[in-house]
Amino acid sequence: PFVCGDSFTIFYFAKEEQYCGFSQVYHNMDRPVKVPFRQGFGQRFIQPPGSGADLGFFEYNELSRPLHGNVFPLVLYAESYCEPISPSTASKCTQVTQAVIEKVDDGPFGFQVKVKWQLLWINGESYDQEFFGVGSSPEAEIGTNISEIECVICMFNARDTALLPCRHMCMCRECAEAVKLQSKKCLVCRHPIETIIEIPISY
């Protein structure tokens, strides 16, 4: 799932530059098209006609793995402005998904995308580290205890909202909104909250 985005851009064979910028290494390819995207979750993105790449021009080993210099065949770049704690602290959010393209059969549409890396950038700061409160161990995947996924405040809704910059993910969206208006501090570490960001998790 993608964080809500004001715009969405697809790069082909792109490398990361300073401050979460990306550029395509093959200059003869069409320039990436930035598409406006309304905010919200669960939306379907349809790429504009004529803005893709003909995969037939590339060798399979170019598509199926990152190239030298950490160049990924496919980079999905979503930009948004996170809801600020106060009007003076607007936060630009960028979610980057770096992926490869695997061939699953010999047909013209026999390709699938495999995600290799995802990270968030908030106001120039990288948050590619794990959010505390999101289970990722094999034990958690097999049988996560209900108490480990409940919001620590209402004890009913699932945790789906991360607090930045401390990265604690211990509340649901509704309770995070209430905390933002009242204490403005994380309930776990008491660190001041700069931004809250909703991240849907399949437990």
TrEMBL record:
Ranges of residues in domain RING-type: 151-190
Keyword tags: Metal-binding, Transferase, Ubl conjugation pathway, Zinc, Zinc-finger
E.C. numbers: 2.3.2.27
Gene3D superfamilies in UniProt: Zinc/RING finger domain, C3HC4 (zinc finger)
Keyword Endoplasmic reticulum: no
One Pfam entry name: RNF157-like_N
Gene Ontology MF annotations: ubiquitin protein ligase activity; zinc ion binding
Top-level taxonomic group: Eukaryota
GO-annotated biological processes: protein ubiquitination
Keyword Acyltransferase included in the entry's annotation: no
Substrates-to-products reaction catalysed: S-ubiquitinyl-[E2 ubiquitin-conjugating enzyme]-L-cysteine + [acceptor protein]-L-lysine = [E2 ubiquitin-conjugating enzyme]-L-cysteine + N(6)-ubiquitinyl-[acceptor protein]-L-lysine
PANTHER family xref list: E3 UBIQUITIN-PROTEIN LIGASE LUL4-RELATED, MAHOGUNIN
Stated name of the protein: RING-type E3 ubiquitin transferase
